[in-house]
Amino acid sequence: MKVTVPVGLGPAEAFWRRVVTAVVETFVGLCVLALVGLACLQVLLRYGLGDSLVWMEDASVLILIWMVWVGGILIWIQGSHLAIDFLIQRVGRGGSRRLRLLSDAAAVIGGLALVLASVHSYHAYAGIEILSLEMDSTVKFHPIMVGTLGMVLAALHGLWCGLKGGDGR
Known about the structure:
Layout: H1 11-48, H2 56-78, H3 82-88, H4 93-125, E1 129-130, E2 135-136, H5 142-163
Helix pairs in contact: 1-2, 2-5, 4-5
């Protein structure tokens, strides 16, 4: 897939945007493949052998959570969030730039608040085990923190580029 790089980005910035985009797209693609593989395996085991693996659903939920939160980073980097696109198409060029700056600022503030709330929830769930996976339930909060921090970094990048006069997307 060809990664579009906004005009006005320096060569190093364009390189890192391509690298991050490629890594995130690959990760999300592998998550989709894993989910499809697990679903096929579950169907085969359940209807072919009359049995299923207990951990399959919990593993699928974890993969889905990771895919969604890491995919959110990609959406923010590319500026392809549906609600933002819908609004940007209805305002002029100056309004579009201000709307992007406002959405980036809101994402930074909201993202940091979400990370703080996730840390609190992380500690509240510490010690509770997901029996089928034999893992601590705090593992469900890792993708939230990673994805949110990634989106905050992408929003900070958008703010930086927007304040410099560029688009950042």
